[in-house]
Automatic annotation (TrEMBL):
PROSITE patterns xref list: PEPTIDASE_U32
EC number(s) from the headed UniProt entry: 3.4.-.-
Name of this protein: Putative protease YdcP
Classification lineage: unclassified sequences, metagenomes, ecological metagenomes
Any one GO biological process: proteolysis
Keyword Protease: yes
Organism of derivation: mine drainage metagenome
Entries under Pfam families matching the protein: DUF3656 (PF12392), Peptidase_U32 (PF01136)
Keyword Protease: yes
Chain positions covered by the region annotation Disordered: 639-659
TM regions (residue ranges): none
Biased composition regions of type Basic and acidic residues, renumbered to the chain: 648-659
Amino acid sequence: MSAHHSSQPLELLAPAKTSAIGREAILHGADAVYIGGPAFGARDKAGNSLADIAGLVEYAHRFHARIYVTLNTILHDAELDAARKLAYDCYDAGVDALIVQDMGMLELDLPPIDLHASTQCDIRTPEKARFLADVGFSQIVLARELTIQEIAKVRAAVPADTVIEHFIHGALCVAYSGQCNISHAHTGRSANRGDCSQACRLPYTLQDAQGGVVAFEKHLLSVKDNNQSGNLGALIDAGVRSFKIEGRYKEAAYVKNITGHYRQLLDGIMNERPELHAASSGKTKLLFTPDPDKTFHRGATDYFSNGRKADIGAFDTPTFVGLELGAVTQVGDKWFEMESNEDLSNSDGLNYLHKREVIGLQANVVERKGKVWRVYPNEPMHALHGLRPGLAISRNRDHAWEQALTKKSAERRIGVDAVFAETADGFSLALRDEDSITVTSCASFEKQPAQHPAEAEDSVREHLARFGNTDFEFGKLTVNWTQPWFVPSSLANKLRRDAVEKLEAARLGAYVRPLRKAAVEPPARYPEESLSFLANVYNSAARAFYAKHGVKLIEAAYEAHEEAGEVPLMITRHCIRYSLSLCPKQAKGVIGVQGQVRAEPMTLINGSEHLTLQFDCRNCEMHVMGKMKKHILKAAPPSTVPITFHPRQPERQSKRPLA
């Protein structure tokens, strides 16, 4: 076991809706966890108390894993002071870093806590990435839309100690993060403030410039879910060092499964590449077989990693059909039979396709008959339209597999080598863990020669190896003595317990929390001199920040209700034209079509909502244009500071001595 000197750490970063899920993420192999604090985290309904976060920090630091708190909404002037206090509370709770979107945070009097730039900062260019590194961000989360080549260019532009973080799994925003105001325009709920109404998951009808229907009631803005399982090696080569899983609204089973899946993949890569090591300590042993296809997803895509592809959309249905099991062989009055090489169990959720509709059923009882399974569904057979021999059956709920995930499903242990030795007045036990942290415990004891010298060493080993309910796993034992002595089990147990207690304390003592990176002086220049509403500047501190960095013209964020006209409510690299093979660039070279296809505007319709699509073909982007609804425009710009006068319970302030 050696300390890592020249090798580079890889961080697997998992989401946590609650501190309990955060613990499971660490147990299942996460090197770091991101979680929402009590306020200002960009998932409105995923808040956690500071006491819970402090408990999670303590657990994580045992494995030298890190906890990041999301403070990544844009802030109203009335919220700046509360955000500053929250930053101090997080720092006092032991949190390792804050994930931030609002540049106003950098102008506040903050504790020396490390800062990460959220994906909401819309980081797609080397220039923007370099700027953020220069103003004091140590870790930056890139836009999900970047190709592997674009990521490599960003890596080359930032200082060596800047960590590049990238999303490798989970739901995708169709828009560049931080560049979507559709929810606020239609409902007054701001995505930049953690309250997105997910207009992109609705069905839309698409009309061309002449009013002809191109697509009817399809989920045209809904993209499949991100899965970079096949690209991890290439992403490492491009410079990614933190691998982020999406999902702060997700339940424990998803976090266990997806974290375990990527832990295994990254461990496999690190076994072959000694120049890389895990960013935290210990080895995870999973008590189930992870499989991303078994948790809900909208189909998988590696998005733009390897360039533009036509199949990133989940247009037909956002429902999850799962894995194909086999085909129906026979249909009875209360049952049907199917062939499958998989094991089925009672309460499995099954489905099949009938006239482009997914029909679901629950297996009440299943019986194995050789290679064939007889399934008694919960539903009456006559209600299962179109169920006939030859039809393919899929499973979207694997009951046995889900049950395994409700129980203890992983162990994580830190490797420890031991030296048991005789001392002048007794015995000592020295432990050295995989991070080269060493402790020794001693006990005085009147030595007596062992009655069975041949078995003495094995007996010592057996007593010392009982690390059962600790964080440690016993590795190599060296016994240093002049002759085999009698070592009673009570003495061996006491030495082991003392040593483990000392090692736990020494590990926490050895843990170093990362500190805030200093901004370069004189202040770095922002790559542009003017900012539109898309820069999300919503408070005076953010204005002061950009002015200090050379920006001359600054428009207010969309939430300030100063944009009355039609503006791009969403900017996306996903292009509906391209996905429907109507792209002028695709048409080049097609005989008879060349030069005829113009990227004229199109219209998306959902009920009374009309959105105009404009195509910026030079940048290969689509702009979804629209206006803010009148009643929203007239309403007060959003802030969490109550403007109404309902009685509210004052939140209890944590008792912190004033500086």
